[in-house]
Amino acid sequence: MTNTEDTIVALATPSGTGAIGVIRLSGPEAITIAQKVWKGKDLTKQASHTLHLGRIADGDVLIDEVVASLFIAPKSYTRENVVEISCHGSAYIIESIIKLLIKKGARAAQAGEFTLRAFLNGQLDLSQAEAVADLIASNSKASQQVALQQLRGGFSSQLKTLRDQLVQFASLIELELDFAEEDVEFANRDQLKQLILTITRIIGNLIQSFELGNAIKNGVNTVIAGRPNAGKSTLLNALLNEERAIVSHIPGTTRDTIEEVLNINGINFRLIDTAGIREATDTIEQIGVQRTMEKISQSALLLYLFDAEQTTQEELNNDLQRLQKPGVSILVIANKADLLSEQQLNALPSVDNMIVISAKENQHIDGLKNKIYHSAVKDQLSGNETLITNIRHLEALQKTEEALTRVLNGMQDVTSDFLAMDIKQALHYLGEITGAVTTDDLLENIFSKFCIGK
Ligand code: GDP
Questions:
Q1: Residues with C-beta less than 6 Å from any ligand 1 atom
Q2: Average pLDDT of the segment spanning 162-178
Q3: Which keywords fit this entry according to its UniProt record (predicted)?
Q4: What are the pLDDT digits (tens) for 140-152?
């Protein structure tokens, strides 16, 4: 897959019928291969970044009238010669042109191969290449912004600087090894310690940012749970502002789970309405209750709703005790406030982090949304913070942190060779993020998740 000698071709736009389809050719022969099927000006004699109207023909058989865009190496996405052919978006035409280009010497590109070439040719580092995939997959303003920031090199340049500094120390310590008998210290231990503390702090912040970064990229799994008739379906509708879930008077009717996406300030909360959590009497309901508990364990946020008119403090405490799961934050919502007098409202059972609403009358739904949002976004987002969103980066950062902790701990008593080994490990994991260190397996793993044509 890492062979870049040949010229690759693929459809860059979605397959299926569209107004136009864009076929991309990249590689040393991109322009000469295009010229072989081209009727119009000689493409091999044109300047970079120019557009040309012409026709694609297989011998005498005309296939389509198209526009070709030329990008001459290294001024292209892949840093190779690139021709983009915009043809009419018929699946038949697209297939015919691609087949023809393959007949004339191009090879069908594999998934992610254009972006892989951009990486191999130094146009992007690895985390930027991954950001391309994230940008293509982004489905909200926040996820698009984070991907864009990563694409622009935000945190990889920061890591690169730190890594370069660490490399210097590594080489000084290596040098000490060469003079082992003479007991010299080229690498100033205090400076090394300071650098490692700095790196560890920055890495620690990046690791912490994953929770939010992941919420932005993948959304926040949010479960709505409570006893039957507490108003869960009504709340779901109020949050979504639409009549979606089925609202009924018969306890236990929302037996299965329903999933909807609520976007608050650019973050997607995936809302899962669940079967009621009362002690189930029949087996179907029991399955529902079990599923509710499973759903809660898999989520990051639980909206626990209770009927403020019907529920005692004891029942509330019992429910909350049952529903508590490690790693899941709970927002407690007292519903049906519209049925209560002021006096009753003042005497409500109370717990931490509680909000009083009326789902049916749409009271305090905005306040609730605000609380939901801030359960994921603890501090105000400025739009400039560095967030990591990729589990691969998280793991590499954690391993870097472990290796650096070993360096710090060992600095007093271990010999230079062990110190050098741990620093090398840290360098290795840091390098894996930006692609300074790669293996074919790693590349295969990352780029195979891309679509063909990317
Ligand atoms: P679920 O079983 O928890 O999903 O509860 P539903 O959403 O089906 O609601 C049960 C009943 O309570 C329905 O008759 C709703 O109209 C009613 N209800 C829900 N929320 C409110 C509210 O805020 N105020 C009042 N008065 N009734 C509500």
A1: 226, 228-234, 247-249, 254, 276, 335-336, 338-339, 358-361
A2: 84
A3: Cytoplasm, GTP-binding, Hydrolase, Magnesium, Metal-binding, Nucleotide-binding, Potassium, tRNA processing
A4: 888 888 888 888 8
Q: How far apart are CA 236 and CA 241, in angstroms?
A: 8
Asked if pLDDT for residue 19 goes beyond 80, the answer is yes
Residues 163 and 237 in one domain: no
- Stated as kind and residue range, the H or E segment containing 269 is strand 267-273
What pLDDT is recorded for position 255? 43
Angle subtended at Cα 217 by Cα 211 and Cα 220, rounded to the nearest 5 degrees: 60
Q: What's the CA-to-centroid distance between 101 and ligand 1, angstroms? A: 63
- Interface ipTM: 0.99
Structure tokens at 25: 């050719």
- Which residue's alpha carbon is nearest to atom 15 within ligand 1? 231
Q: Could you list the residue range(s) of the whole structural domain that residue 266 is in?
A: 223-377
Which amino acid, residue 317?
A: N
Place of tokens 């399955």: 287
ω into residue 74 within 30 of 0, thus cis? Answer: yes
How many residues are there in the chain? 454
Does residue 228 share a domain with residue 369? yes
